[in-house]
């Protein structure tokens, strides 16, 4: 019978664990520091949403103030704009609950809602979204490149289902 001595197994096991840990660390990308790093296409000019793409401050054609309300509404509840306009959305949370403002079409809103429902409910800001804590204000600059009906939705669990969406009509 062939037996392995414990003195041989332990150093080999420790070495395997060290190599495994170092390899895993080397292959794990660091979490991006900014939302732009989540979406490198922002810098390439490609659209990341059916609703358009992130805008640049120097392109802003209109500033719109939006309030998030604990009654699960946005104020105003609808916007009508022209294709090609770049909006500066000033989103202020006047309530006591956390809210979001996410720009997208119905399919994108549904996908984001499913992601949030799957336990990915951490606050995040992205090229087409902001999470706004009570009393805070955030800015979102967005260029609407094509006509259609889009939404600004809040996907904090239960909010979108309660009707927290504003309609954006692009002519």
Automatic annotation (TrEMBL):
Keywords carried by this UniProt record: Copper, Metal-binding, Signal
PROSITE patterns to which the protein is assigned, alphabetical: MULTICOPPER_OXIDASE1
Gene3D superfamilies tied to this protein: Cupredoxins - blue copper proteins
Signal peptide (UniProt feature, chain positions): 1-26
Ranges for domain Blue (type 1) copper: 65-170
Superkingdom of this protein's organism: Bacteria
Biased composition (Basic and acidic residues): 28-46
Pfam families attached to this UniProt entry: Copper-bind
Sequence segments annotated as region (Disordered): 25-59
GO MF term list: copper ion binding; electron transfer activity
PANTHER family tied to this protein: AURACYANIN-B, COPPER-RESISTANT CUPROPROTEIN COPI
Protein name: Uncharacterized copper-binding protein
Taxonomic source organism: Methylocaldum marinum
């Amino acid at each position: 019978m062939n037996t392995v001595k414990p003195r041989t197994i332990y150093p080999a096991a420790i070495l395997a664990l060290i190599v495994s840990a170092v390899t895993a660390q080397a292959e794990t990308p660091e979490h991006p520091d900014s939302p732009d790093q989540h979406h490198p296409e922002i810098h390439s000019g490609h659209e990341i949403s059916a609703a358009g793409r992130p805008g640049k401050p120097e392109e802003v054609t209109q500033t719109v103030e939006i309030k998030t309300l604990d009654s699960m509404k946005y104020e105003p509840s609808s916007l009508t704009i022209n294709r090609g306009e770049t909006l500066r959305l000033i989103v202020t949370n006047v309530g006591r609950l956390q809210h979001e403002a996410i720009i997208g079409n119905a399919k994108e809103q549904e996908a984001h809602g499913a992601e949030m429902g799957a336990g990915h409910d951490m606050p995040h800001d992205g090229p087409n979204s902001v999470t706004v804590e009570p009393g805070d204000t955030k800015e979102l600059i967005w260029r609407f490149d094509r006509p259609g009906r889009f939404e600004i939705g809040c996907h904090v669990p239960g909010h979108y289902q309660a009707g927290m969406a504003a309609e954006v009509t692009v002519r």
